């Protein structure tokens, strides 16, 4: 029964994350590269921040597994999208290989940096 509750929390969070991502892509329909880029960077930062908060905050120490999984694996997992990023890079590489490699490298570098910043800021805020 516990596994079913946890799965339902992940599903609900992922559904919400996908709806948010779909809405952003619907608002910017002709420019798929940049919205996905910013969604992934913001999602990386937020995942780091929530993880830092959950791991270092007394106020978050009693956060249930359901809440943690809803926010991290569900919501932010559904919001961010490696598959769309990969498909965008493959499409771009068909005509502009250097730009595609640079764009992929930039997104990975900034995504990792955003996650590190989020972790650090979340942990610092959690220790207060």
Automatic annotation (TrEMBL):
<keyword id="KW-0472">Membrane</keyword>
<keyword id="KW-0407">Ion channel</keyword>
<keyword id="KW-1003">Cell membrane</keyword>
<protein>
    <recommendedName>
        <fullName>Fluoride-specific ion channel FluC</fullName>
    </recommendedName>
</protein>
<comment type="function">
    <text>Fluoride-specific ion channel. Important for reducing fluoride concentration in the cell, thus reducing its toxicity.</text>
</comment>
<feature type="transmembrane region" description="Helical">
    <location>
        <begin position="7"/>
        <end position="28"/>
    </location>
</feature>
<feature type="transmembrane region" description="Helical">
    <location>
        <begin position="67"/>
        <end position="85"/>
    </location>
</feature>
<feature type="binding site">
    <location>
        <position position="80"/>
    </location>
    <ligand>
        <name>Na(+)</name>
    </ligand>
</feature>
<dbReference type="Pfam" id="PF02537">
    <property type="entry name" value="CRCB"/>
</dbReference>
<keyword id="KW-0406">Ion transport</keyword>
<feature type="binding site">
    <location>
        <position position="77"/>
    </location>
    <ligand>
        <name>Na(+)</name>
    </ligand>
</feature>
<keyword id="KW-0813">Transport</keyword>
<keyword id="KW-0479">Metal-binding</keyword>
<keyword id="KW-0812">Transmembrane</keyword>
<feature type="transmembrane region" description="Helical">
    <location>
        <begin position="97"/>
        <end position="123"/>
    </location>
</feature>
<keyword id="KW-0915">Sodium</keyword>
<keyword id="KW-1133">Transmembrane helix</keyword>
<comment type="similarity">
    <text>Belongs to the fluoride channel Fluc/FEX (TC 1.A.43) family.</text>
</comment>
<dbReference type="InterPro" id="IPR003691">
    <property type="entry name" value="FluC"/>
</dbReference>
<feature type="transmembrane region" description="Helical">
    <location>
        <begin position="34"/>
        <end position="55"/>
    </location>
</feature>
